[in-house]
Write a structure and sequence with these properties.
It is found in: Cell membrane. It comes from Faecalibacterium hattorii. By secondary structure, the protein is an all-alpha fold. It has one domain: Amino acid/polyamine transporter I (Up-down Bundle), CATH 1.20.1740. It is 73% helix and 1% strand. The chain has a two-stranded antiparallel sheet. β1 and β2 form a beta hairpin.
């Protein structure tokens, strides 16, 4: 039975994350970039001021809503989305990409991020535009809503939109248990045991208890925790990574040279990974880039849609920053930590130390911090993975509520917390593979919807540009009027 499941999952995984799925991911990002006039590049300074810059200059960005208002602030929506996005993929995923695709894979992660920025932007624009309030006054939004209410309104697409919405929501629930829960908790438990000798069961019980107090409090409590944890974990990890890179500053030029050589197959084939050609670097760069920033999966839009903004493009710009911070900042620093440490052959991509995954990053940190290096990574993974669990708990809750109604959310959360203990102590090789597949099954219907509604995204973006950049007196295209809640 297990062999059959593995074989079926491998076949499905080969489609959703094979050439077809990656081509769709690349193509959607490219098309959206063209249709919006490469907004992410042309207006880079503007959206940086409106996001990370506004955190320090505009109090409305961080201001909390009242207790009766179930919306969250723009900053809270970003932190909650980043909590789910920045995870073990930023450490283990980068190491895997380099070891499997060579240093050149990092370049293709950048390419995927630059295009994925517009995919994330578009998801958030559509999320705000097609959201509505439920009976309790809380915003409901996400890929399932713009699939059903956006794509579904196009001629001949009514049933298609509904079917894709259900497929997306069901895959999201399953992915939340795997990639968003058990796999993350298992990574935490394994690293804490290796670094500090903490039993896996104890880790699972403690994290489940802590999580219950947060998750059962709903989105506003998760957002309140995320806005404190995410900046802390980012500063902690980025600070340590910068120290490692600065100590090895003389090796930085060689690291960048290896990235560009490997990306275009210019490195000599020394019998290692790069000798296999550009295709492997492209595949692993795209694949791990997509896993890292989750642009195209449509998951984070469920949290972004609860923001207290009314301008779709305003929330779309937070999607740009989310991908920028995740891949172009965090993943790039991780890559430089690995490539400047001397532990990876810059020509072949082989690990000189004979280690893989998070152990390789820990080894790289130990070249500067000594025996504290692996412990530093264990704490980083604890923060990264635990925040991912909190974020995905909200994705799953919203997906279950869409499928079965709001009352099902509480039961889902109870199961979600209980599974954390199981995840800490079980072997999860198959769970990781299944999670990859469910992520891909979320991605495909979401990208069909985003591509199909690209014209709507372009119109909303042009309208915003006409008003804000050119001062034209045109009526704004804001969030659609609230509609009665679905079951």
């Amino acid at each position: 039975m297990l062999e059959t499941i593995t074989a079926v999952n491998g076949a499905v995984n080969g489609v959703v994350w094979g050439p077809l799925g990656l081509a769709l991911l690349f193509g959607a990002g490219a098309m959206l970039s063209v249709r919006t006039g490469f907004f992410q590049l042309v207006h880079f300074r503007y959206w940086m001021r409106q996001t990370i810059g506004a955190i320090f200059t505009d109090r409305s960005v961080t201001a909390h809503t009242g207790t009766d208002d179930q919306a969250i602030s723009q900053f809270q929506s970003l932190c909650t989305a980043l909590a789910a996005t920045i995870g073990t993929g930023n450490i283990v995923g980068v190491a895997t990409a380099i070891l499997s695709g060579g240093p050149g894979a990092v370049f293709w992660m950048w390419v995927m991020a630059l295009l994925g920025m517009m995919t994330s932007f578009s998801e958030n624009v559509l999320g705000i535009f097609y959201r509505h309030k439920n009976e309790e006054g809380a915003w409901q939004g996400g890929a399932m809503y713009y699939l059903a209410d956006g794509l579904g309104r196009k001629k001949g697409c009514k049933q298609l939109g509904r079917v894709l919405a259900v497929l997306f929501a069901a895959s999201c629930v399953l992915a939340s248990f795997g990639m968003g829960n058990m796999s993350q908790i298992n990574s935490i438990a394994g690293n804490l045991r290796a670094a500090f000798g903490v039993p896996e069961l104890a880790t699972g019980v403690v994290l489940a208890g802590c999580s219950a107090a947060v998750i059962f409090g709903g989105l506003k409590r998760v957002a309140a925790v995320a806005e404190r944890v995410v900046p802390l974990m980012a500063l902690f990890y980025l600070g340590g990574a910068l120290v490692v890179v600065l100590v090895h500053a003389s090796a930085v030029p060689a690291a960048f040279a290896a990235i560009f050589r490997g990306a275009f197959g210019l490195a000599p084939a020394g019998g290692g990974v790069l000798g296999c050609g550009v295709a492997r670097a492209v595949t692993w760069g795209f694949k791990r880039g997509a896993f890292s920033n989750e642009a195209g999966l449509g998951a984070s839009v469920m949290v972004h849609s609860s923001s207290n903004v009314t301008e779709p493009v305003q929330q779309g710009m937070w999607g740009l920053f989310e991908v920028f911070a995740d891949t172009l900042v965090v993943c790039t620093l991780t890559a430089l930590v690995i490539l400047t440490s001397g532990l990876v052959d810059l020509e072949t991509g082989r690990a000189a130390a004979g280690v893989v995954g998070s152990a390789l990053v820990g080894k790289a940190f130990s070249t500067v911090f000594g025996s504290f290096g692996p412990k530093f990574i264990a704490v980083s993974i604890l923060l990264f993975a635990y925040s991912t669990v909190l974020g995905w708990s909200q994705y799953g809750t919203k997906a279950v509520s869409y499928l079965l109604g709001p009352r099902a959310g509480g039961a889902y959360q109870a199961v979600f917390v209980g599974i954390m203990v199981v995840g800490a102590v079980m072997k999860l090789d198959l769970a990781w593979d299944l999670s990859d597949t469910f992520n891909g099954l979320m991605m495909l219907p979401n990208l069909v919807g985003v591509a199909g509604l690209s014209g709507t995204v372009a119109r909303i973006t042009r309208n915003y540009a006409a008003r804000v950049f050119y001062g034209r007196d045109v009526a704004p295209l804001t969030a659609s009027a609230p509609r009665p809640a679905r079951r």
